[in-house]
Amino acid sequence: MTNATNRPTGGSSSQEGFPMERELIVVVRHEARLRATREGIASVEGADANPLADVLASERAIIRPLFGTGQERIRARTASVAAETDADVPDLSVYYKVDAPDERLEELAARLREQEVVEAAYVKPPATLPIALDQVSEIFNDMVPSVEEAPQVTPDFTARQVYLDPAPAGIDARYAWTQSGTGAGVRIVDIEGAWRFTHEDLGQNQGGVVGGTQSTDLRWRNHGTAVVGVFGGDRNTFGCTGICPDANVRAISIFGGLGSAGAIRQAADMLNPGDIILIELHRAGPRSTGTGQKGFIAIEWWPDDFDAIRYATSRGVIVVEAAGNGAENLDDPIYNAPAPGFPSNWTNPFNRANRDSGAIVVGAGAPPPGTHGRDHGPDRSRLGFSNYGSLIDAQGWGREVTTCGYGDLQGGSNEDFWYTDQFSGTSSASPIVVGALGCLQSILRTRGINPVSPPRARNLLRSTGSPQQDAPERPRNQRIGNRPNIRQMLSALVGEVAHFGIAEAQYQTIFTQVTSSGYRPVWVDGYEVNGKTFFNAIFRPADGTAWVARHGLTGVEYQKEFDTRTKEGMRLLNLSSYLSGGSIRYATIFVKALGAIWKAYHGLTAEQHQNQFNNSIAEGFRPVNVSVVSISGQRSYAAFYEKSDVGSFVLKSFLTPEQYQKEWNDNVAAGRQLAYLSAYQHLNEVRFSALFQQKVTGSGQTVGRHHLTSAQMQDEYDKWLGQGMLTRIIAGYQMGNQHQFAAAWRKN
Which among 73, 165, 395, 411 could bridge 365 via Cys, Cβ 3.0 to 4.6 Å? Predict the structure, then answer.
């Protein structure tokens, strides 16, 4: 993975630039609502903070908020994120850092834990550069720059970047570039210690260091330069090219008092949903020997880092975290035991059944044998230093990565021209995964599709890619996951495009973006919340079928459209009636396709609809789409039918949510599945129109959900698409003053 020099566990060492300091982290009780200011420590709730202040004063220690801003401001920010995302956002205001002499930290932590207002106090080991697993073997990232001066023009090294190539050797970045997947519109923040942003291949889209203070240590600087070069190297005719070279890349240093958790929080607040944080750090874990990096683990094991990551992912920011170079099985029971001073409610985050930070954790796999004339074992097998276990989501190349920095491939006296082809570790693996995600997000943005969320990104990496392989004494059940395959991820992702809760004013723009990117609509649903109209829409890859879609049609306009399209040999695929500005409107999708005999009507009362329904069933028709809208307490029906064999069926168009759930249960028990659903408000109550059939499109069982908030809808969408299902239905409605959604998923 990632960062730092070796030193005995529990000691303190220095490198040029900054000391490698341990940190004393204090977690105060939430109900105490402590505030640390220049004037001292106080409790908003009146708790006695004087004993705590006395302990700190006796040690001449200084306490300050870990996340670097006023606690009330942190609380307000957390509440805002929770309100926007409906996520369980951690309270970062309870975390503090205590500055005291290193040799006093353990005893001071013990004294602090005795204080009534303190929930936890623990000493966190420092982050260190990835130098060696032990003193005998697995030495890497210690390359020495060539003394030969660089040529006037740097050669093109991209042929050595095999990780850019098609799968399985590479991640197919070159294909992504043909699909506008160059990283444009994506922002990435790298968190570690130092960088060389004046490098000749890091000039086009770099935002520089935006937080912390850079170490002057060459090892940190080489490391950061190499990491950024992997995904952010410039597109030009010399040197190396980054996986997503057009992404905007910035960096935050953990030095200068910020620390890893503070850096993560700062990065999260700089980014938008779909952007990416890379954590190039690991720490000495409970099995660390103090010799080399054996036993080093991913940083989320420590509570403050875990909550900082969870804060970022709750904001929709993707966090990629190096698993670490400790050769550790992260499923080992040793990680169930908290370190001294951890909170009483702490559970092992390496077991996601306990809790989940939302991060994507990356292990290190071997490159193809023969890369640069060297062999590290079977392609995609676990490298011996890489941590492994069920936590790990994906792997990248852990050896032979060609990038900027170090100077062994091209050196000389000027670091701006240094290159390497031996960058290694989970340090080199993690930016490869970042690059793959940067390409994917860029493609989606270009096509007008929302970027993938952190859970969806993780699901894609786990469900696609080139599989891990066995190596002697390193079987594939020592999980480091698959190597990303961008082409495969894109195919898995874009089997459909779905948008929900689109404001009426934005609908046409989004519709045009998606359909101009090779999709056609298969579902549209209009609904109203607080007097404003919104749409849900599902699109599938265009297959040559001619189609026409319209929305905002009055009854007269819909009839005219219907007459025109049926004369052209088209038929209805989907029909939605909804309210807009107090009037009934229609949205339609017509397709030119062969099919059964069909019929349609609209604007009928409930009684008229029932008569038409009875007559149609008697004539051998079966309902396909029965959309209902209520205005002034009167229901209006729009529907169409086909003469097709659907087996047994049940249609109910005036269901309360409770009745809908019962109908779902009863029909599933009878062997029927949901085929159609719409929702509407009738006299300020939610009603559903639901059609269950014995025979439905797709395969397997239908998964359905209702009463979903926007955030819950996104979570469910990511979950089921990640399991290979397609969205069949999205119905929107108002409950209280909020958007609610009902949806269904089924495999093809």
Answer: 395
Position 253 scores a pLDDT of 97
In 271-408, where does DSSP find H-type helix?
Answer: 303-314
User: What is the C-alpha separation between 710 and 730, in angstroms, rounded?
Assistant: 12
Question: Which domains are seen in the chain, by residue range?
Answer: 23-124 (no CATH), 158-467+479-492 (3.40.50.200), 495-697 (no CATH)
Neighbour tally for 343: CB within 10 Å: 14
What is the structure's pLDDT at 436?
Answer: 98
Other CB atoms within a 10 A radius of the CB of residue 174 amount to: 17
Can you give the three-state secondary structure of 37-68, one letter per residue?
A: ECCEEEECCCCCCHHHHHHHHHCCCEEEECCC
* Kind of pairing between the strands at 187-192 and 248-253: parallel
Residue identified by tokens 């092992």 is 348
Question: What whole-number distance in Å separates Cα of residue 340 and Cα of residue 290?
Answer: 18
Whole-angstrom distance, CA of residue 2 vs CA of residue 516: 42
Structure tokens at 28: 């105060």
Overall size of the chain counted in residues: 748
Q: How far apart are CA 615 and CA 478, in angstroms?
A: 64
**Side chain identity at 114, as an amino acid letter?**
E
- 491 phi/psi in degrees, rounded to 5: -65, -40
pLDDT value, residue 516: 79
SS percent in the chain: helix, strand, coil, step 5:
30, 30, 40
The string of pLDDT tens digits covering residues 77-89 is 777 887 777 778 8
HEC-encoded secondary structure of 520-566: EEEEEEEEEECCEEEEEEEEEECCCCEEEEEEEECHHHHHHHHHHHH
Q: Using alpha carbons, list the distances in angstroms from residue 665 to 91, 209, 624, 674, 676.
A: 39, 56, 21, 11, 15
User: Other C-beta atoms within 10 Å of 19: how many?
Assistant: 12
Structure tokens that stand for 740 in this block: 């609610």
DSSP string covering 620-688: T-EEEEEEEEEETTEEEEEEEEE-----SEEEEEEE-HHHHHHHHHHHHHTT-EEEEEEEEEETTEEEE
pTM: 0.76
* Amino acid making up residue 643: K
Contact 239, 156 (CB under 8 A): yes
Sign of CA dihedral 349, 355, 359, 365: positive
- Can you name the residues that pair with 42 across neighbouring β-strands? 35
Query: Strand 532-541 relative to strand 497-503: parallel, antiparallel, unpaired?
Result: antiparallel
Instruction: Note whether 705 and 500 are within 8 A (CB).
Output: no
Q: How far apart are the first and last CA of the chain?
A: 39
Contact 341, 113 (CB under 8 A): yes
Structure tokens at 707: 């009463």
CA dist 382 and 391 (Å) reads: 14
Predicted local distance difference test score (pLDDT) of residue 6? 26
CA angle 568, 570, 571 (to 5 degrees): 150
- Would you say 480 and 364 are in contact if contact means Cβ atoms under 8 Å apart? yes
DSSP summary character for residue 156: B
Report the distance separating Cα 728 and Cα 476, nearest Å: 36
Encode burial over 536-560: b for 16+ CB neighbours within 10 A, e otherwise. Answer: bbbbbeeeeeebbbebbbebeebee
Quick one: tokens of 476?
Answer: 């594939």
User: How far is residue 363's CA from residue 385's CA, in Å, rounded to a whole number?
Assistant: 10
Place of tokens 């129109």: 689
The DSSP H or E segment spanning 296 is strand 296-297
| Both structure tokens of 261 | 């958790």
Please say whether the beta carbons of 437 and 318 come within 8 A. yes
pLDDT of residue 139: 65
Tokens for 569?
Answer: 């040999």
Low-confidence ranges of the chain (pLDDT < 50): 1-16, 135-136
